[in-house]
């Protein structure tokens, strides 16, 4: 990005520490602290025993670190993690694959009705989720899919955002390349697998991360579609901790910590992709 | 082969988007309950009830408006300010981006739980920090603030949480937008004698408008439909202080199983969102065009 684009003239100027810079840095650092501290607090508190969590006044670092809260929380959250892992593990590859396929077809093949289909799909992005929630729920009831993995996976099998993004990205794949391959006798599936996919890898990576996070963190839909605790995904199960059902803050906090750790790991590993991807999507319409 | 694939895609979207939309619309004019087979056409009764008889509906709309204005208006401004600051400093940008963006990919439910713990009146760390800071500065001890227990603090708490969670997201988009503005513009302006504020007003702001506009539209749509953090942290209380329109819809639809009424509510919401979005696009586009 533009970060490294400094004109030669700028590099000659000696940078002096202006007072405004000190103010800026201070404010930003304080802000960064505010951003991070709840997460640090939660992580640190996850290693406190139940008794210590309920001490007044609250302690900062654990006086006697213990795995008690985490163990207790794991007993309940463990099954939720399994469900979430399964649903996300199945849903993400499916939605990414369908997005690439459909994006590819819509971009590189001419056929009647192509634009109608594309804009039709795009138009569904304009619908706020709320409008489709209730009828989709009714459909799930008709299909007998309440409390099934199918209800969590099938409706999300196609990602409108993913299709849109992949189709746009396909523009970077030169048609000449595909034509050349065809002349050489390569079949269409082979062209797709061996030429197209490697060329769109960065977009694939970004989309995968988006989909992963979207499915992993999804709340409202799993909430209404799942009623049996053994089927709960992590967000739904954790929310059950909130009301009066688990008044113990120790378990709640530890449970939240367990839920967040996978996401933090993914984020730390892929943060450049994630941030760049989000920035690009924000700019895409601008 | 292509037709086969398109067939699957079309079927999927018809099944999960076009058909449901139409069906819900039709059923919003009926008495619709999940396991009841009858069609029960009742005309505009659901809509009439929502708009003219349901006081909770209007109350919820008010709470939603409160939240939306704070989250979209003040929230976006906050993000813009931070983005400008991050863009102005030369070093540690990567660190700031990481730190501010960190809350974004985390699930809203675990985050809400953590904040619930932090904002706990007696055992929460926030009140403790406030108390300790006041004591360290030799100020009189402030009262224990009931962040989630007092009606006047509940919505501000939810708003703060939402700002915290989404600041990094909007900030990153804005920073990308800011970096897209060529330096030559600023240099030319400087040569012409324009001060920092003028540069901001006549270069930065107009060129950022498309990005800001997009963010505003997304935020508005998302804010109106806010649900998860409220349901987890306050369940719409205390005393319905945080009872937004989605809480109302959820309660009527999945609490009372009045799907027809819920569908009507969702379509009213749809119209509101459409209207607001069109308004935002129109007003902001014409105001800043030059």
Strand and helix map with partners:
The complex is a heterodimer of chains A (about 290) and B (about 290).
Chain A: H1 8-12, H2 19-45, H3 50-53, H4 68-108, H5 114-123, H6 129-143, H7 149-153, H8 160-170, H9 175-183, H10 188-199, H11 201-217, H12 220-225, H13 234-242, H14 249-284
Helix pairs in contact in A: 4-8, 4-11, 4-13, 4-14, 8-11, 9-10, 11-14, 13-14
Chain B: H1 2-27, H2 45-53, H3 55-88, H4 93-101, H5 108-118, H6 125-136, H7 151-179, H8 183-191, H9 196-224, H10 228-233, H11 245-255, H12 259-288
Overview of this protein structure:
The complex is a heterodimer of chains A (286) and B (290). By secondary structure, chain A is mainly α. Chain A is 72% helix and 0% strand. Chain A is globular and about 75 Å long. About 3% of the residues of chain A have low confidence. Chain B is mainly α. Chain B has a domain of 175 residues: MetI-like fold, CATH 1.10.3720. Chain B has 12 helices and no strands. In chain B, helix 2 crosses helix 12 and helix 4 runs antiparallel to helix 7. Chain B is globular and about 70 Å long. The chains are: A mainly alpha (286), B mainly alpha (290). Chains A and B meet through helix 2, helix 4, helix 5, helix 6 and helix 11 of A and helix 1, helix 3, helix 4, helix 5 and helix 6 of B.
Short précis:
The complex is a heterodimer of chains A (286) and B (290). Chain A is mainly alpha-helical and 286 residues long.
Q: Architecture of the domain at 45-103 and 164-279 in chain B, CATH level 2?
A: Orthogonal Bundle
Instruction: Return the average pLDDT of chain B rounded to an integer.
Output: 90
Distance between the terminal alpha carbons of chain B, to the nearest Å?
50 Å
Number of E strands of chain A: 0
How far do the termini of chain A sit from each other?
A: 17 Å
What is the overall number of helices of chain B?
12
Largest interface: A-B, 92 and 99 residues
CATH superfamily descriptor of chain A? MetI-like
Unreliable spans of chain B are: none
CATH topology of chain A: MetI-like fold
Helix percentage range of chain B: over 70%
Q: What order do the SSEs of chain A take from the amino end to the carboxyl end, as H and E?
A: HHHHHHHHHHHHHH
Q: Residue share in helices of chain A?
A: over 70%
Largest sheet of chain B: none
Runs of chain A in which pLDDT lies below 50 for 5 or more consecutive residues are 6-14
Number of strands of chain B: 0
Strand content of chain A: under 5%
């Amino acid at each position: 990005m533009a970060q490294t684009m400094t004109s030669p003239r700028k590099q000659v100027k000696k940078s002096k520490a202006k007072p405004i810079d000190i103010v800026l840095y201070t404010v930003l650092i304080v802000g960064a602290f505010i951003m991070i501290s709840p997460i640090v607090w939660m992580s640190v508190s996850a290693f406190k025993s139940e008794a210590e969590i309920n001490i007044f006044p609250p302690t900062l670092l654990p006086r006697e670190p213990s795995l008690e809260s985490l163990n207790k929380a794991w007993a309940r959250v463990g099954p939720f993690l399994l469900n979430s892992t399964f649903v996300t593990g199945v849903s993400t590859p499916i939605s990414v694959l369908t997005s690439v396929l459909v994006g590819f077809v819509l971009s590189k093949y001419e056929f009647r009705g192509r634009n109608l289909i594309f804009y039709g799909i795009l138009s569904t992005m304009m619908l706020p989720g709320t409008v489709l929630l209730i009828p989709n729920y009714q459909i799930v009831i008709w299909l007998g899919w309440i409390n099934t993995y199918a209800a969590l996976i099938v409706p999300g099998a196609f990602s409108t955002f993913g299709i849109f993004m992949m189709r746009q990205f396909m523009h970077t794949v030169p048609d000449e390349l595909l034509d050349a391959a065809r002349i050489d006798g390569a079949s269409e599936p082979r062209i797709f697998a061996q030429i197209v996919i490697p060329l769109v890898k960065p977009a694939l990576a970004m989309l995968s991360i988006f989909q992963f996070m979207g499915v992993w963190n999804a709340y409202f839909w799993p909430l209404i579609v799942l009623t049996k605790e053994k089927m709960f995904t992590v967000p739904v199960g954790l929310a059950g901790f909130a009301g009066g059902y688990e008044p113990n803050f120790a378990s709640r906090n530890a449970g939240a910590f367990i839920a967040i750790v996978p996401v933090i790991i993914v984020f730390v590993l892929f943060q450049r992709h994630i941030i760049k991807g989000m920035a690009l999507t924000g700019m895409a319409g601008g | 082969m292509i037709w086969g694939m398109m067939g699957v895609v079309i079927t999927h979207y018809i099944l999960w988007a076009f058909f449901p939309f139409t069906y819900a619309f039709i059923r919003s004019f009926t008495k619709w309950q999940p396991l009841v087979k009858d069609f029960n056409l009742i005309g505009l009764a659901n809509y009439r009830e929502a708009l003219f008889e349901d006081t909770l509906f209007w109350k919820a709309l008010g709470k939603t408006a409160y939240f939306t204005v704070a989250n979209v208006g003040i929230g976006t401004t906050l993000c813009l300010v931070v983005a400008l600051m991050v863009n102005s400093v030369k070093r540690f940008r990567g660190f700031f981006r990481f730190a501010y963006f960190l809350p974004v990919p985390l699930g809203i439910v675990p985050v809400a739980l953590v904040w619930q713990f932090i904002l706990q009146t007696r055992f929460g760390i926030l009140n403790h920090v406030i108390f300790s800071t006041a004591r360290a500065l030799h100020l009189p001890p402030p009262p224990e603030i009931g962040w989630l227990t007092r009606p006047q603090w509940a919505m501000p708490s939810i708003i703060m949480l939402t700002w915290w969670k989404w600041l990094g997201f909007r900030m990153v988009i804005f920073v990308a937008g800011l970096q897209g503005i060529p330096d030559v513009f600023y240099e030319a302006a400087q040569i012409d004698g324009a001060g920092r504020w003028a540069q901001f007003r006549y270069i930065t702001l107009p060129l950022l408008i498309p990005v800001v506009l997009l963010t505003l539209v997304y935020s508005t749509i998302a804010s109106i439909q806010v649900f998860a953090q409220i349901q987890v942290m306050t369940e719409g209380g205390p005393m319905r202080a945080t009872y937004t329109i989605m809480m109302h819809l959820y309660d009527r639809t999945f609490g009372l199983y009045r799907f027809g009424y819920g569908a009507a509510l969702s379509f009213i919401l749809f119209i509101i969102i459409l209207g607001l979005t069109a308004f935002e696009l129109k007003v902001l586009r014409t105001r800043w065009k030059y």
